[in-house]
């Protein structure tokens, strides 16, 4: 029986994705777990893995075409199996084709009813042409190869530049940057003072919409505490001396683990509001906000309360790397129940984060700073960190969030609690 691979749902508010590239072509063999296609969502370009082994019998969607969540993209079957693709395109169930091969009549490729925003943003003759439409992977490849992406001819829908276009450009041996023609010295032009219109990317649009909804519909309040990080930093140094580079623990990993353990004690913060009830989540899945080109992605450490620090560190490092390369996988960004946003690397003393619905809370973490502290009545040098929890007042109250912050603080100030 042939197997249909649908457009996956990668986020609770995802309605459709764009099929950016067919990694496996018609007639090619694919193994379960192999990358089958690249799709673009509101958040990122994601590699979709095959859910079955077999031969690609045919694609039901075209590259550049928006595909609704749950709609079938491709058919996989046994090598000698025949499939009626026309029936599948018309919405029928998968079935074997007649024993006598039938050559389908050529058909005109369907035109998507909803154009992708990438296509819509291509400049027309009446608009400025400085906007280059390219997939995140193509932009990353161009940056790595020091290519001026404006020199690349896009072959995707609406002139979109794809990975294949960058690869073809590299093979062509053309100069990476425009040649400069010598000219007579002239006066430097005055800097432009004209306003610049910058179209929002899909990622920026979804961030704008969701953060506006969060601030307008969620009654948020904030609790800040200061944490003595001296013991945690000493503990991290000792742990990392025993670990390989790919498993070394960061301060953020310590915070993720401390928050996950505290969420066990305070399940109202590991929850979501649902009208006349609160849904307390069975798993503690901590999302980590990652800065990427054009916005933020949240990668998810699943069951963070149950995993050792080294495993949290390894998983987080791998997912953050994929997010910044435009290669996140579906499970990387799905299912967070609580989030941590850390701006400590940017020399930030303290800040407040906006809750990421449908979660009930988010923890904002600032920089660890050297500061004088009083211990046993004596002024000594110390290391201090400020953290702020934003919480949904429909789900929890100030006293409970304060106790949650005390639990996080206790785990970081007595870091052996993170490993017992």
Can you walk me through this structure?
This protein has 420 residues and is of the alpha+beta class. The chain is built from 9 helices and 16 strands. The model is unreliable at 95-130 (pLDDT under 50). A hairpin with a 2-residue loop joins strand 12 (286-292) and strand 13 (295-301). The two termini are 49 Å apart. Helix 7 (251-265) packs across helix 8 (309-325). The protein folds into 3 domains: 3-89, OB fold (Dihydrolipoamide Acetyltransferase, E2P) (Beta Barrel); 117-172, Dihydrolipoamide Transferase (Irregular); 219-418, Chloramphenicol acetyltransferase-like domain (Chloramphenicol Acetyltransferase), CATH 3.30.559. The chain has a 6-stranded mixed beta sheet, with helices on both faces. Strands 1-8-6-3 form a 4-stranded antiparallel beta sheet, with no helix packed on it. It has a 4-stranded antiparallel beta sheet with strand order 5-4-2-7, with no helix packed on it.
Helix content: 10-25%
Question: Any guess at the CATH architecture of the largest domain?
Answer: 2-Layer Sandwich
Domain count, please report it.
3
What's the helix count?
A: 9
Which value, in Å, is the CA radius of gyration?
26 Å
- Within CATH, the superfamily of the largest domain carries the name Chloramphenicol acetyltransferase-like domain
Element order, helices and strands?
EEEEEEEEHHHHHEHHEEEEHEEEH
The average pLDDT score comes to 83
Measured between the Cα atoms of the first and last residue, the distance is 49 Å
Q: Report the β-strand fraction as a percent range.
A: 15-25%
Overall structural class, as computed from helix and strand content, comes to alpha+beta
Can you identify the CATH class of the largest domain?
Alpha Beta
Report the uncertain regions: 95-130
Major β-sheet, in short?
6 strands, mixed
Overall geometry comes to globular
Q: Going across the major beta sheet, what is the strand order?
A: 9-16-15-14-12-13
In CATH, the topology of the largest domain is named Chloramphenicol Acetyltransferase
């Amino acid at each position: 029986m042939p197997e249909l691979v649908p457009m996956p749902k990668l986020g609770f508010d995802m309605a459709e994705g764009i099929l950016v590239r067919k990694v496996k072509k018609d007639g090619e063999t694919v193994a379960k777990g192999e990358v089958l296609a690249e799709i673009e969502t509101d958040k990122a370009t994601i590699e979709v893995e095959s859910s079955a082994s077999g031969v690609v019998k045919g694609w039901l969607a075209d590259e550049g075409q928006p595909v609704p969540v749950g709609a079938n993209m491709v058919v996989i079957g046994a090598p000698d199996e025949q499939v009626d693709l026309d029936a599948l395109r018309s919405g029928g169930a998968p079935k074997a084709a007649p024993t006598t091969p039938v050559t389908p009549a050529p058909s005109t490729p369907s035109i998507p009813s909803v154009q992708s925003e990438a296509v819509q943003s291509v400049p027309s003759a009446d608009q400025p042409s400085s906007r280059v439409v390219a997939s995140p992977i193509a932009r990353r490849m161009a940056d790595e190869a020091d290519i001026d992406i404006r020199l690349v001819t896009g072959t995707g829908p609406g002139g979109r530049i794809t990975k294949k276009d960058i690869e073809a450009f590299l093979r062509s041996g053309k100069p990476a940057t425009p040649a400069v023609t010598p000219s007579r010295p002239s006066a430097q032009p005055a800097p432009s003072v004209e306003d610049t219109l910058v179209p929002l990317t899909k990622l920026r649009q979804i961030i704008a919409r969701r953060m506006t909804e969060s601030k307008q519909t969620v009654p948020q309040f904030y609790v800040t505490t200061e944490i003595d990080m001296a013991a945690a930093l000493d503990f991290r140094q000792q742990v990392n001396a025993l670990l390989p580079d790919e498993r070394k623990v960061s301060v953020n990993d310590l915070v993720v683990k401390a928050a996950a353990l505290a969420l066990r004690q305070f399940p109202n913060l590991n929850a979501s509001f649902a009208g006349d009830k609160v849904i307390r989540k069975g798993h503690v899945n901590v999302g980590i906000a990652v800065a990427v080109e054009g916005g933020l992605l949240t990668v998810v450490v699943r069951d963070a309360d149950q995993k050792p620090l080294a495993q949290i560190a390894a998983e987080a490092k791998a997912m953050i790397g994929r997010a910044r390369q435009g290669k996140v996988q579906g499970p990387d960004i799905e299912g967070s129940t609580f989030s941590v946003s850390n701006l400590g690397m940017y020399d930030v003393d303290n800040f407040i984060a906006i809750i990421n619905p449908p979660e009930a809370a988010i923890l904002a973490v600032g920089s660890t700073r050297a500061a004088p502290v009083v211990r046993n009545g004596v002024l000594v040098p110390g290391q201090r960190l400020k953290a702020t929890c934003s919480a949904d007042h429909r789900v929890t109250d100030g006293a409970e969030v304060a106790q949650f912050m005390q639990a996080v603080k206790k785990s970081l100030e007595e870091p052996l609690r993170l490993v017992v």
